[in-house]
Amino acid sequence: MAEKKKMSVAEILAAARAKSDGGAAAPSASEPQASPERQAVARVEESSHVEAEARPKAKPAAKPAAATAAGGARLSVADILAAARAKKAEGGDGAVVEAAAKPKPAAADKPKPAAAAKPKPAAAASAPKTGVQRDTGSILAAARGGAKPGPVSKAEAPDVTAKLQAAAAKPKAAPVEKGAVARAAPPMPARPAKPAAKKDGEEDRRGFLEIAMGSFMAMGFTALSVTGGLFTLGLARFMFPNVLAEPPSRFKVGFREGFPAGKVETKFVPQYGVWVVNADFQGQQQIYALKTVCTHLGCTPNWLEAEQKFKCPCHGSGFYKDGINFEGPAPRPLERYAIRISDDGQLEIDKSKAFQEELGQWADPDSYVTV
Ligand code: FES
What we know:
Elements: H1 9-21, H2 36-54, E1 67-68, E2 74-75, H3 77-90, H4 96-100, H5 106-109, H6 114-117, H7 122-126, H8 136-144, H9 157-169, H10 178-183, H11 200-239, E3 250-254, E4 263-265, H12 269-272, E5 274-281, E6 284-291, E7 302-304, E8 309-311, E9 318-319, E10 325-327, E11 336-341, E12 347-355, E13 369-370
Antiparallel strand pairs: 1-2, 3-12, 4-5, 5-6, 6-11, 6-13, 7-8, 8-9, 9-10, 11-12
Helix pairs in contact: 1-2, 2-3, 8-9
The structure holds FE2/S2 (inorganic) cluster.
FE2/S2 (inorganic) cluster is lined by residues 294, 296-297, 299, 312, 314-317, 328-330.
């Protein structure tokens, strides 16, 4: 007796195709007795073969065979297989067709694409279940360990478990004492960023501006100082006038022997504005001092030795040696200054006192010195 073996879907389909190819005959006696699934598939195949022959051959024969339920709904191979497995689970195989013939939802009426009915790869289908259990921990450990993503079996897990155990077995860092944190040096503050180095052109411009501004300020202060100094000097000059610049009104001209008779001395004209004359006036030889101011409009007449007269260059007035006017517009004679013999015997002239002839003042002894 053949060993009862669970068949894969591919084997079931292969057996069904072989049965359809070999006719609807019953299995020979030499063949081992088929399993309940194979018998159910055989029945389905027979019924589908009969229906396929009865239907018009409009559809290509390549399409996968589909069972039709009693109600006319077509069943896919997967449905058939599901019904067969359900029947087996119940303990009988007679209701496979009935279970497969159950009406399906509308979506199931549509024929499934051929890809859905494709048999699984033989290797995958025939590979027995290894019974390896894959848990989530092993999968995550394999992923963290850089292993190829995907489920990891327990046989592969020991490496990961060993890694985890090794990581757990690593000596932990010694616990830090509570006081150690307080004694730890605080982090050094970051040094302030140094300003970017200035360009040479910028420094040159700044230096030039500083020098220019300094020069302007220095010039301003210098001008202010000079102005203040000049103002101070002017104020001092105003407060202390140079009274000594004026010639003295009283001055000595020398001894009487220095003025011979008939002589007009002109050397004191530029400095004192006076002629010293030794001449005869009204029968008396006198030395007197004449004022060098024309009685017309104030010009200074000239002594003309050759003509023995004073001649005014302005309007032509003429005066004799004793000062009497005789020509020109001058209305009166020249004036005299006071003259006397000083303590040292010199002739001293005092310009602060003047004597006029028209007033009879020339008769005053202060207006002459006798020789
Ligand atoms: Fe001397 Fe006029 S001022 S004549």
